[in-house]
Amino acid sequence: MDDNQLIATMYGAVGEELRWTAVLDAIKMRLGVASAVFQGLVADKDDLVPYLCRRDTWSTQQAERHDAWANSPLNPRFRRDTEPRGEEEIESDQRSLAFTAADREALRHGLAACGLGPGFWLGCKTAPGEHTTMIFHRHVGDGRDITEADLGFLNQLLPHFRQVSGLLAKMAGYEARLAVADAFMDSTSLALIACDRDLGLQWMNAAAERLIDTLPQIARASGKLRLSAFEAEQVVRETIRGQKGDTCRIAGDQPCEVLHLRVLRRDAADRRRPGNRLALIALCSPGTAPSIDAAEVADLFGLTMAEAMLTTHLVGGMTVKDFAAYRGIAEGTARMQLKSALAKTGVGRQADLVRQVCQSLARL
Q1: Longest Cα pair distance anywhere in the chain, in angstroms?
Q2: Per the domain annotation, does 289 fall within a domain?
Q3: What is the pLDDT of residues 210-256, one digit of tens each?
Q4: How far apart are CA 262 and CA 282, in angstroms?
Q5: Where in the sequence is the domain holding 349, given as residue range(s)?
Q6: Across the strands, what pairs with 49?
Q7: Where are the strands (E) in the chain, listed by range?
Q8: Is residue 330 a part of any domain in this protein?
Q9: Where is this region: Disordered (predicted)?
Q10: What is the pTM of this model?
């Protein structure tokens, strides 16, 4: 593989983590070194902490051994003052002005214990307090510093390394935001579905999965949303397409199994399939008891756990008498708990307590 092909494969690995091993193996062979590792690092007070790591085959096999020292705070390279001083750099353990003689001695002994010789690297800043580095280590016993031949190749690699680093940093940011969005979507009690005009399912959150599994008139099969009645399926299709407003009602076998559907947004483009349009849909069934955490109710309303448990069961449709029997306590005790919960929340009736809890949790 010539240098141009090697650089092309590095770009090709940006979105495919598993391809990095082959890329780093090729760079390692090109330089004749023992290891090649790509890392993203972020500053944390006086230290640098890796948030991304790609290794060659040998480094992957030796990961536990290397991480014990070479990729730990014991390594002087992981001090904050060793990050690139400019936008980019080509440096080595022996040339870097960030290291003292004691640091270099620590590096020599520590790296040797990991089966590595001295190191040299490419580095570039990707954001304030963040940078990436591609670091190479000689074989044990090879004490050479970076050579002119090494510098020639690394200078050729540097602009492409900078571009790849920027792309990876952006992808890491996107992935972090997506992870937060996914966590939020799964934590909300609102059932959400993204589907196309033909009811092809693209995504749903955990609340939607639970609701669909509970109700008899709706199901998911072969990647599609299915309704038990043809007429109901037609109504849902027309609602998604905007032909019947934004809401519809789907009856179940029992009155309590009614399903309400609302289109929150329609006609978002599906970039994977041009021409395909998606809609974001919210689902709810008034007859399905909400899932409420008693500990949250206790924290939010200043209730004891006993009062919060009573409140959550009242929200779920139980009577005070039913709750007392369920908990194995006297009905009078349950009524005292209710009286205390009413006083703490500033309402006078059980119905007001239930409404206040539902309204608060719905907004959260």
Answers
A1: 88
A2: no
A3: 889 989 999 999 899 999 899 999 999 999 988 888 999 998 888 77
A4: 5
A5: 294-363
A6: 42
A7: 35-44, 47-55, 88-92, 119-127, 130-137, 191-196, 201-204, 218-221, 224-227, 247-250, 259-269, 277-284
A8: yes
A9: 71-92
A10: 0.60
